[in-house]
Specification:
The structure is a single chain. With 279 residues, the protein is an alpha/beta fold. It is built from six helices and twelve strands. The protein has an eight-stranded mixed sheet. The chain has a two-stranded antiparallel ribbon with strand order 8-11. Helix 1 (56-76) links the parallel strand 3 and strand 4 (81-84). Helix 1 packs parallel to helix 2. The chain is globular. The protein starts with a strand and ends in a 13-residue tail after the last helix. InterPro entries: Aliph_Amidase/BUP (IPR050345), C-N_Hydrolase (IPR003010). Residues 39-238 form the CN hydrolase domain. This is CN hydrolase domain-containing protein.
Length: 279
Amino acid sequence: MRQVESLNLKNYQGKNYLEVQGYDFLPCTITESTPKRRVRVGLIQHQVTYPTDRPISEQLYDIHRKIEDYIKYAAANDVQVLCLQEAWNMPFAFCTREKYPWVEFAEDVNSGPTTKLLSTLARENKMVIVSPILERDTAHGDTLWNTAVVIDNYGQVLEPLWPIEARCAAIANSYYTCAINRVGTETFPNEFTSGDGKQGHRDFGHFYGSSYITAPDGTRTPGLSRHRDGLLIADLDLNACRQAKDIWGFRMTQRLDMYAKELQEAIKPDFKPQIVKKL
């Protein structure tokens, strides 16, 4: 694995208590045929600021204002792609298994207040923003989705992404991966259980933060704090993606036809695995 070096970033002057870290994934092998492809990425971890029993509109407004401040600071440090945590604009109420009032945070990916805010910030700062939210899909029977909305640097919604497979594919196919987790403790009005046999409780415990970025070759940044809001900025060398594929040769040596045949056999009811008992 390679070393990462610290970046010289502007000081944060906002009213919140924000930890800032910056790193440079130094260029990989220099090649004559491939031009430099460098991009500056930022990721934000944060905690909710209002108690969860406050009106939904107040909670949403306060989170919007805080993240708007963080995004503007990231833009001042020339971040080109900014990633937010899962369900960043609400408490992580999925753990309660309650639907109301938490589904009131759900919104349309194109016209909802969260996308409108981030579209403006993306356009003004020429920044791509990845915004995971709870989506209300009115075009498909008001279905609720845990959605990542990708907004381009012109403020347009590129595509909503739903499945977790995208993240798994990123790791398996030699790409950079941004691992983002929230921080803080969220206390809810009603008790709920966690499936561990213990008594009901009103909080989910501490979210552990520690967000980081890892490169295709396994090089990674140090993690952010376990308990504070944080912004991690990193300069990535996109040529590392191709070089990792060249070095490992997974695609060159893969045998998809053989894998498909073996899987077809494995799903049959009478399948018996081959066990070699003697060498």
